[in-house]
Design a protein that fits this description.
heterodimer; A: 260 residues; alpha/beta; 10-stranded mixed β-sheet; 8 helices; B: 261 residues; mainly alpha; 83% helix; flat
């Protein structure tokens, strides 16, 4: 099932021979041993693997938040040497500062990037409307449910129109029903914007349901065990989850991770 | 206003009842005035010596507020330095802890020699005593920021100065206010300690000199004013908290029992 055909699309992220070693109480810990894969433009790629296989470290290196110990990461052909302005990030927790209203939270990247807040306000409001948060602009984060907060944090990652969306287990803290809803929500936003997305998740079915391709990691130290191309038609609907092909994909990924 | 009265009626009523019981006990058991004066006697003193008392009160208030303000300024500054510089942390922190393990009352006489018996020595003691909680609480607050939030800001090329201004500092404010509440009460203590050790003005001085004259009613009059001053200052800090961080305060209304869940 490995896709060896050359992809006609231009590569967005090229990771080759990435290695990351931490010092933990003086002892070196190899988080990522050797990881290479490519994410093409407008592609949705998920990284799945067990806890501690260095999934989050890959995202941080791609975001320019920490340097690799060895190997290289290129975005649009240029080596990543530090943070760039074209990245949107979503974390497991919504991390919305409690002193800012939802609208001000969404506009936080604009302030961080020294862009004109007034120019982006209409766009922020439009995005909030897109995720069903119209009317909550002036509310404070604690007045919103966990799912609504995470919606706001996704909107915040999109407000500055980044080329690249990096998501680190964005739905991991949500209950199962809200998680399903958020998957559909994310698909809807993604199909409208077609942002190149790299998503880290624990959930195999989530990875299969959302992605064009799934990168499976080995346990620590992390390596790429396999890449599986998900040939399910888009737009995707929840009903697909009971289709034999979907179940086949989920089983294939599960086997590769080493689930019984 | 009605809500204000409803929230504060119980503590006020408690104080009034205690006051009445005190008054009755003094009269009933005929306790001599120089041991415990009736509250009415202390209040009468306040009325009779309003001019003198208010002069002493203003002196203590002035020392307290100045010491408090400088304590905050130096405390927050030290906290920022500690959080941002590992080297300076190792230089400053032992000094701060050392300044704290020494009881202020023990170094007060030395401060008198250096800074004189006037305003400066009292302000210095109030500063020294209110400084420490500010450092500790502000350091905790500045460090309590969610690392993901800092990562988010860094991924957008935000400068450290901007991250401080927009994220770290506002995030630390609830902790800063914990420090402020501790510091304001300690600043009052600092001013009084200073006046006890050496001074010719202020409520602390008045308490001591009335003590020599066995004028217990005057001592209580000074104590009443001192409590009123402390309460008012504490109230101002609470008010500032409501104004500056309403998003944090409204979560924890005083008087609402915690165990509702």
């Amino acid at each position: 099932m490995v896709n060896r055909m050359p992809d006609p699309r231009p590569p967005m992220i090229e990771i080759s021979g990435l290695r990351k070693v931490y010092a933990k109480r003086g002892e070196p810990v190899v988080a990522i041993a050797d990881v290479s894969f490519i994410v093409y433009e407008n592609e949705f790629v998920s990284i799945v693997g067990r806890s501690g296989c260095g999934k989050t470290s890959i995202l941080k290196v791609v975001a320019g938040l920490m340097p690799p110990s060895a190997g290289s990461v290129k975005v649009k052909g240029a080596p990543v040497t530090g943070p760039r302005r074209e990245v949107g990030m979503v974390f497991q927790a919504p991390v919305l500062p409690p002193w800012r209203t939802i609208l001000d939270n969404v506009l936080l990247p604009i302030e961080m990037l020294d862009l004109d807040v007034a120019t982006y306000r209409p766009k922020a409001l439009e995005l909030l409307k897109l995720v069903g948060l119209e009317g909550f602009e002036g509310r404070y984060p604690r007045e919103l449910s966990g799912g609504m907060q995470q919606r706001a944090s996704i909107v915040r990652a999109l407000v500055h129109d980044p080329r690249l969306l990096l998501m680190d287990e964005p739905f991991g803290a949500l209950d199962a029903i809200t998680r399903e809803e958020m998957n559909l929500e994310l698909l809807r936003i993604w199909s409208e914007q077609r942002k190149t997305t790299l998503l880290v998740t624990h959930s195999i079915s989530e990875a299969v349901f959302l992605s064009d391709r799934v990168v499976i990691m080995t346990p620590r130290p992390g390596r790429v065990a396999e890449e599986i191309k998900i040939d399910l038609p888009r737009p995707r609907a929840s009903t697909m989850k009971s289709s034999p092909r979907f179940i086949e994909y989920v089983e294939a990924v599960g086997r590769r991770i080493g689930m019984p | 206003m009605i809500q204000f009265l409803r929230r504060h009626s119980l503590p006020v009523a408690t104080l009034l009842v205690l006051g009445v019981l005190w008054e009755l006990a003094v009269r009933l058991f005929d306790i001599p005035n120089f041991i415990i004066p009736a509250p009415s006697a202390a209040l009468a003193k306040i009325a009779a010596h309003a001019g003198t008392l208010s002069r002493h009160l203003l002196t203590t208030l002035y020392e307290t507020v100045l010491g408090f303000l400088f304590g905050i300024a130096f405390g927050v500054l030290a906290a920022i330095v500690i959080v941002y510089s590992d080297t300076l942390q190792r230089v400053i922190y032992p000094l701060i802890v050392l300044s704290q393990v020494l009881p202020k009352i023990a170094i007060a006489p030395i401060l008198m020699i250096w800074a004189g018996y006037g305003l400066l020595s009292k302000v210095l003691i109030a500063l020294l005593i209110s400084f420490f909680p500010m450092v500790v609480s502000t350091v905790t607050g500045l460090r309590a920021v969610d690392p993901d939030l800092v990562d988010l800001a860094r991924s957008l090329c935000a400068s450290e100065a901007k991250i401080f201004r927009k994220i770290r500092f506002p995030n630390a404010l609830p902790y800063v206010f914990v420090g402020l509440k501790l510091s304001i009460t300690l600043a009052v203590i600092g001013a009084i300690v200073g006046e006890f050790i050496g001074g010719s003005q202020g409520l602390g001085y008045l308490i001591l000199s009335s003590n020599f004259q066995m004028d217990t009613a005057m001592m209580f009059a000074a104590l009443f004013l001192l409590s009123a001053m402390g309460l008012a200052l504490f109230g101002l800090v609470l008010l500032a908290e409501r104004i500056f961080i309403p998003w944090s305060v409204s979560d924890q209304e005083p008087g609402e029992p915690m165990a509702t869940a």
